[in-house]
Structure formats: C-alpha cells, structure tokens
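Note to self: the last two entries modelled the partners one at a time, which told us nothing about the interface. This time every component goes in together.
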Amino acid sequence: MDAVTKRLAPGLLVWAFGLALAWGLPGSVWKGATPPPFPWAALFPAALAAGTLALAAPLLAWAGGPGLASRRPLALLEAPPDLLWACLLLTLWPAAWGPPGTLAWLLAFLLAALPGEVRWLSQAMPSEYPFPQAWGQEAVSRVRRTVLLRLWGRWLAARFPIWLTATLVLERVLGLPGLGTDWFTRVALRDRPGLALWVGVLALLWLLAQPGKGEEP
Amino acid sequence: MRNRLAGLIACLLSALAPAWAQMVEESLPRDPGALDFIQGDSYEQWILQSLAGDALVGLGPDGRVVPRLASAWKRGKDGTLTFTLRGDARFADGRAVTAEDVLWTLQELLRNPKASPTKRAILAGATVGIEGGRPWLRSPKPLGRLLMELARIPIAQRQHPEQGTGPFSFRKEPGAWVFTRREHFLKPQVEGIRFRLLPDPAGVMAALQKGWLSIGAPATRRQTEVPASHRLVTQPMHAQLVVWSHAGPGPLKLLERWRREAFPPQLLGQNARPSAGLWPTTLGFEPRVIEAATPPPAPGLLRLLYATGDESIEKLLLALRERARRDGFDLQLVPMEEALLVDRLQRGEFQLACSMVVFDPHPWAVLEYLEPKGPMNFTGWQHPELAEAIQRLQTPDVPAWRDLQGLWARNPAALPLLDFHSVIWVDRRLQVEPSPLGLYLATPGAAGWRWTQ
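The predicted structure of the combined assembly is written out below.
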C-alpha cells in the first residue's frame, strides 16, 4: 500500500460507511411517492453561494489573521443559527417587494456561514508572534497568503459537503428549494439510490480535493 | 418624446398588472415530484393532477358523483360500466380525448408495478375495454364505491403520462409549480395558480401576513389574528388521529374514555376536537362504543409510538399522558421519524401506535382497516363474516354498514382520538367553495374560483 492510499484509506472508509448507510436506510413510506427529479436549476445558485464563500472567507481570514479566531464579535456573529438569520430576513423584507429570491437567500447563507468559516480558517493559521510579526507587515501578509493557499483545498474538501446540504433551513423558511431540500426529500421518501448517488458525488468531490502523489499533505 | 415613452411604458405596465394580480399564490408543504398521472401518488400530487387532469367522474362539493370527462355512464346487466366521453374535452396539446386514452391509462395503471399504489388498489380485479368507441370497466367492487374511487384517476394521454385534460395547463419553474387557465368545459375563471414550496409553517405564516400567499394554512400553535387582507375559512375534513393497538381492544377501551376528558379546549385550537365513535362520523357513521373489551388493570405501562414533527399533536399527546396518569397508567410516548413509524406499523412491531389518517370521501374508505390486505390493517384483523358483510355494501346508506361496524366494535384494532378540520386563510377577494375534499379535489374545484375585484 503506497503512502497516498494509506493516507486516503480512513476517509474512504468513512465515505463507504456513508454509502452503506444510504443504501440500507431503515424505514418505509406508507403510500409510495415518487422521488422528485434532481433540481438542476438549483446548481447555479449553489455554485454561486459556495464560490462566494470560498473566496470571501479566505480573504477575511487573510485580512484578520489568526487573531480573528479569538475575537468576541466574530463569535457573536457565529452563534445565531441559520433559522434566526432566515426569519430575520423574512421579517425585515418589505412586503411590497414580493417573496425574497435567490439573492436574499445568498445573503442569508453568507450571514449564517461566513463567520464560522472565517473562524475555522483563522484557527488553523499558525501564530504570528514573534515571527513573522518581527519581520514586518509584508512578511506577515506573505505568510498568511502561503498558509491560506495550502489550507484552501483541505478546507474546501472538509466544508463543501456541509455547505451543500446545510442550506436546508434557509430553503425551507424562504421557500426556495435547492440542494438541501433535495437530499432531505430523498431521506423522507427513502429514495435510497438517490441518496447513494448524493453520497457518491460528495465522496468524489472529497477525493478530488485530496493532494495527489508527490504533493505534501 | 421621453414623456411619451414613459407614458407608453406606464400603459404597458398597467395592462400587465391585472394579469399578475389574477394569479392565485399558494404553497405546498412537500415536493410533489414531476406531474405523472400513472406513477404520482401523494396528497400534493393529487392536487396537481386535479388541476391538470380530469377523471371520468368527479365528486361535487357535497361528495356526490358528478360528470367530468364522461358526460354519462351506464351499467350493463353483467355489471359492466360503460362511459360516454365528452366531445369537447381536449388535452393540453389540443388533441381530442378518445376511448383509447382512457383504455391506455387504466391498462397502464394495472400493468405498471411502479404505478400509484392507491390507483392500482382502486382498479384491483378490474377489466377494461372499448366497445362501440366507448370505454368500459368491469370490477368486483360495488358500483357506488367504484364510481367514487374513479374520481381519483385522471385520464392521461396515451403514451404521455404527464399530459392531462384539466382546466389548467401545467409548467414547472424553478421552485414553483405554475398552472395557467385554458379552454375547458369547466370554464375556469382565475388566470392561474402558482405553488411555491414552503415546508416551514413559520415561512407560510410570514408569507400569509405579508400578502404573498392568497391561500394558506396558518400555524396552528399560534392564536394569531387573521390579517385584514384575508378571511378565515373552515372546512370539514375526513381526517383523524388514529391509534392502533396490537395488544387487543383493552387499551383502546381506556383511550376511548381518556379522549373525552384529556384535551382542554384551548389546546385543541380551532382545527381539532375529540373523536366520537370508531369510524369517522363525517363519512356518515353513527358513533359506536367498543363492546365487551376488558381494559388492562392499573397500574400499567402502555407504549405509544407516534411520528415527530407536529408540535400541536405532541402537546395533545402529552395531555393524554397526564390523563392516563390519573388512572394509574404510565403512557410512554415514543417519538419516531415518520418512515420508521410506518415501518414498525407495517411489521406489526408495536403495542400502541398513532398516526394521522385522511380517509377517502366515501364510507368504503374504512375497509382499509378491515380487509386482509388493507393498507391500514396493521394488526392482521380478520373476522369470518367479513367477506359476506362486504358483499352487502352496495350503497353508502344500506343497513349492512351498521352490521359491519358491529363486527368491528366487538374487537376493534384501532380507535380515533381526534377529528380535524381544515382551517385556512383565503384572500378576501378570492371566492372559493369549501368542501370536505378541500378546495382543489372536488368538481369544479379551482375551476370554480373567481376574483371578486
């Protein structure tokens, strides 16, 4: 077994367990309902949300550095659950504008997810005291950039499946069905092949984000 | 020039505005999936199908069978039911409806193992054909039951299970199911209906209060005032919270007493009241009591499985538990995810289990409790006189129904705890006809709605 396979084995085992769970999910539906078709139209908003988050979180972490992880205001922003942001947005949204659309959903998603992701990245950054702080701001910036570039792939791999599925609460409250609603519906309807496909695709994304042969993990 | 252009735009916008205003905005609690007249089987799918399709017969708001796609029907001496189709019925693509379409729909439902289980059960044992250009159907079921059940089967175009003849044409938009009025014999008045997926009751409530929904069910746990733009509409429903007992009728005898005393009116709210009798009184059954059952001795332990997710039901079950405690019984409430509960029910692995049941709008619906393969016969209930008793149920008003209920009352396997009403808010400008079938499923249903302003 080479080094890469050895490194990937525990992760693959977890995904295999997830796949087995999806196939063998217990329970049945009283009156057989057909699972809905995959919401292809939701892919673009999901990609937009994931893309914005994937850029905004590292940029903020780069600007704030590892010190952000212990900032109380960030913790305060991170604390409210998705439901609160969704309900707040719905309450403040003027009735005359009609029901909130995809942009409002994106805003609520960023409000809910961004503080947590910035903290995740900041916490993973090494301390800057005494070095590179002693070498000046330019060195600090360069170190942060290097660290974040190395972190970015693994961070995406770890968090991407969560972003794709954790939008469920926002989708339910705002009435904008997307990928979160899709997997939830498949769980409720016990669409085992559909769920297995979901797990398979997420596992593939994880696998693609892993460093290959010759790349230092 | 600029002023003229602005005026022209304003004219165009004002011309468009009424069209927008005439759309009825609605919500769906669950994704109904793709419109499919063969495989689609859920309450939400039934709403979609009733808008985009026509069954051979319909059910009026009073529950009587009325013509729909068939203008007339005749019963032959051998029990064959022959239908005369309307000449003016057209599919959404403009093609006229033929007997071949009816035959294909019914045969596909009988042939396809993935077809709707509800529709397959309706057609169980039936044979279909065409004679003299008219479709016919022969079934072992009594005529009254068969006709009422046929209202659940809209006719699809041959080889096109997504194509129907209903008063509205359907198109799917991202996150919305849109129905637009079309030329139809029911002459729909409203421009169209747009459904959004809103599974969260808080989301529905906010949308209703902000005027984004023309129709919606308010959250039952809140005693909120109806907004000025809407009015309260209450509809009777054939819906009950039913408890099944795998420990014989003894525990049900206790529950029969507790259900009368357990629920304070403020907890019941506007949409629930304690059930009376064994079968839904809304379907015309007399309230009967359980006969000759010995309740288990106190103190005792009873385990009741229920589906999580409905806060108001959970509170009512807690009230029931408190009532049981006063009699020395520990009623353990075991919450379960809905599909896991269904699994336990179907395997018969429970002492007591409860679930919400929406009955079809005819008395034969209760046979689901009794028939050997009935979808609600979770305890394997049987009786040697059952087959003969069912044979005598030719119409909804024959005395044989009382005899059948007598068989059940001696050894029931299930007992309703609560009867439910449908409480909805409807835009004041929208005129709708409430019925026990809801706003959509009766004939003319949504085709009979109109805006008053």
